[in-house]
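EI: anyone free to look at a 457-residue chain?
SC: sure, send it
EI:
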Amino acid sequence: MSERLVVIGGDAAGMSAASQARRLRSAGELEIVAFERGHFSSYSACGIPYWVGGDVGAPAELIARSPEEHRARDIDLRMRTEVTALDVPGQRVRHRDLEAGTESWTGFDKLVIATGARPLRPPLPGIDAPGVHGVQTLDDGQALLDALERTPGRRAVVVGAGYIGVEMAEALLARGYEVTVLTRGEQPMATLDPDMGRLVHRAMDGLGIRTVASAEVTKILTGDDGRVRAVATDAAEYPADVVVLGMGVRPETSLARAAGLPLGTSGGLLTDLAMRVRGHGNIWAGGDCVEVLDLVSGRERYVPLGTHANKHGQVIGANVGGGYATFPGVVGTAVSKVCDLEIARTGLREKDAREVGLRYVAVTIESTSRAGYYPGAAPMTVKMLAERRTGRLLGVQIVGREGAAKRVDIAAVALTAGMTVESMTALDLGYAPPFSPVWDPVLVAARKAVAAVRAAE
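SC: here you go
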């Protein structure tokens, strides 16, 4: 007798899980039903800023697999269908057809929760006014593009200076807008230490993006027509013809919370190494709705990234399909850019190290992306944290021009392997003048960190 797998969420984690399970088990053995409340499946939300900015020509280019393609693989993907309740003891979910308005229940033998994240949208006056946009889904991206075509003014305010905020600032700048970015933090990119965020701030100002730090938004001001006209902070007003919210996301776990499933400090679902929800043998969860193990600090943390979501889905699908796989955790690697400025980080910031009680040294070096004499060599700043006494690598942050960001992968591998900064100095990295100085910038930082560790003994 066949089993039924129900998947809540039709994007990266959910459909990766469904697809992998289908590869392992036929339709006669495993019926797969997936519910997605949106209009699109298996798409790259990370690509939306580049679509808005004109680097990507059409939303179809961001879709990895359409609903029709999933259905052709014997996955019953039901679009525009929202799951509204989860009955764990009864092993069933209630769902609403958003077009017809009808509701019904579907039972499951196995369940995958891949409900993603919800963007932060604080209850500020005017937050829902015409002209205020989020950018979480392809529908959001299209709505923003339509608004940019209709809006006669050319002043844009981006609220938030994390990854989405700086990427949307670049997109709006490319569209010919006068861009102001407001961040409540000491510097943009709170995923970096403030001294590295200061480099981003300076570069954004140099690109023509006005960046205002320590700015607490209090309300969105509207004109007589009800449309947005400005963003107010506790200190000033910033005129705006369009406002983009980039204030971060939180795990969308309202269904899980109502069902009594275990949640972590960030509100994300807690799973074991097989991505099975703790305490529930037939329920798995993955993607932006879960917390994961930080391999450096040893604590659970919330890291919503498409790379993780796809890996979670592969692990879940393997286990649901009768195989075996685990997701060991993350080191917190992320890269971004604003125009030609590249930004990267992995591991712990100074704040993170202090919070978990680690004693550390921190060093910063200036280098170049290529041999200094080779045409196109660009400046790069690398910051490295290492544990005092042991010299274990704890984290790396990089800000620079072309060739800077992906160097963080060296550090990500070293963190995953538990390497010390001293052992890193012996890494046999590729060298040629067009690609690197004789001593790669990451290794220069490692050498300086070794000296700092020895001096702190």
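EI: The domain at 121-247 is CATH 3.50.50.60 (FAD/NAD(P)-binding domain).
SC: 👍
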